[in-house]
Specification:
By secondary structure, the chain is of the alpha+beta class. It has helices spanning 3-19, 45-58, 93-107, 138-142, 159-162, 169-174, 190-194, 196-204, 208-220, 255-258, 271-282, 295-301, 360-378, and strands spanning 34-35, 62-69, 72-78, 88-89, 225-227, 267-269, 286-287, 290-291, 316-322, 325-334, 338-343, 348-354. The relative contact order is 0.16.
């Protein structure tokens, strides 16, 4: 064997070893996760071992994947410079977390119920400007059935692209016309979720992020996170992160609005902590022996309302094929393909953080490949 041939074989061997990244059980980071292995929790370890090098080699947009089975962390892998301690933008997965904050505020008596009119909690906004708002309830917001005119993404005249150029996003949302009877038509709208910031603030007396920190994150042991204010959205956005959208410059926001956290898309969290939130729902509101959310709120949040089979309270509802049958799944999803999947019948939680901002369609196919052909297929 010539020296050149030997060198080529050596390089090939190193390349193969790098592609065949060995599976390692998740590490302990002091965040109160029980650690196990796939085979220890009834999953095919060979499929889990296959998925990690596949992501590393073939799926460039995935930054992290976390899998929890039977309440134990069995997979915790990161790519593209991320690690287990790095918070990741989760965009609209924030909405599902805000839904839990609303549930806690109701349980503690700050809101009477989700059937309350939003006018009861809009002190700083003259909702009388739009008489049709009197029929809107918190439940209409949670189920995305307010009827408020809204196009999330579209041409430059769509509400989703116009709202960043206004000095008070709440006022802008409330100024939209209602084009369908509340409770009759599902229309996904980050504008709806934005309204929960003043509702929570005026109901509890503190901002939604502070309330969440005390009553949701602290009991879950979640400390390493950031919750960006709506008014900071563009200053905290990296170049090219939102393709094709011109960033507003030199906007002076109204004082009250400037303090609201982004209840539509403001959170940055570690994937391990996102998985804790999913496990909280899987545990019917319990974590570490404490009841953080009521079982009733979990049930309401993850079931259909107003004859809409694909949405609960700020959670999406779907089914997956599993061994010749259909199983239910509820999940949160965010721009760039941030994912939090909960499979109640399989006692399974899956988190994926991604940067597929410019390749959403292709990235979604890759995401579904991983979920269907590796994670679900691995469940024995």
């Amino acid at each position: 064997m010539t020296r050149l041939t030997y060198l080529l074989w050596a390089l090939l061997l190193i390349s193969c070893q790098q592609d065949k990244r060995a599976y390692l059980p998740p590490g302990q980071t002091g965040d109160n996760w029980a650690i196990s292995t796939p085979d220890g929790e009834g999953m095919d370890i060979e499929l889990i071992e296959e998925v990690v090098p596949k992501i590393s080699k073939d799926y460039e947009g995935i930054d992290g994947i976390v899998v929890v089975r039977h309440g134990k962390l069995i997979l915790d892998e990161y790519f593209n410079g991320y690690d287990s301690e790095t918070p990741h933008k989760i965009f609209s997965v924030t909405k599902s977390i805000v839904g839990a904050v609303v549930g806690i505020a109701i349980e503690q008596g700050y809101l009477k119920s989700e059937e309350d009119s939003i006018k009861n909690y809009m002190k700083n906004y003259l909702t009388d400007k739009n008489p049709s708002l009197k029929n809107l309830t918190v439940k209409h917001i949670l189920t995305m059935t307010t009827g408020l005119d809204w196009v999330e993404l579209g041409d430059k005249n769509s509400q989703g692209l116009k709202v960043p150029f206004t000095n008070d996003w709440i006022e802008f949302v409330l100024s939209q016309s209602i084009n369908s009877t509340p409770g009759t038509t599902f229309n996904y709208s980050s504008g709806n979720a934005m309204l929960l910031a003043p509702i929570i603030k005026n109901a509890t007396g503190i901002q939604a992020d502070k309330f969440a920190d005390e009553y949701l994150f602290a009991p879950l042991g979640i400390k390493n996170y950031e919750w960006v204010k709506m008014s900071e959205f563009w200053t905290k956005t990296e170049d090219g992160e939102i393709p094709g959208v011109e960033e507003p410059r030199s906007l002076k926001y109204d004082t009250v609005f400037s303090e609201f956290p982004g209840t539509g898309s403001g959170l940055k969290m570690r994937p391990r902590d996102i998985a804790k939130f999913g496990q909280l729902y899987l545990n019917n509101g319990q974590w570490d022996g404490k009841q953080i959310l009521t079982e009733d709120w979990i049930k309401k949040s993850t079931q259909p309302h107003f004859n809409n089979k694909v949405y609960g309270y700020l959670w999406r509802l779907t089914e997956f094929d599993f061994k010749n049958t259909k199983i239910k799944c509820y999940y949160g999803t965010g721009f760039g393909l941030q994912k939090l999947y909960v499979f109640p019948t399989l006692d399974l939680v899956v988190v994926m953080t991604q940067e597929n901002y410019r390749r959403m369609l292709k990235g979604e196919k890759e995401t579904q490949d991983i979920i269907k052909n590796y994670i679900l297929k691995a469940v024995k």
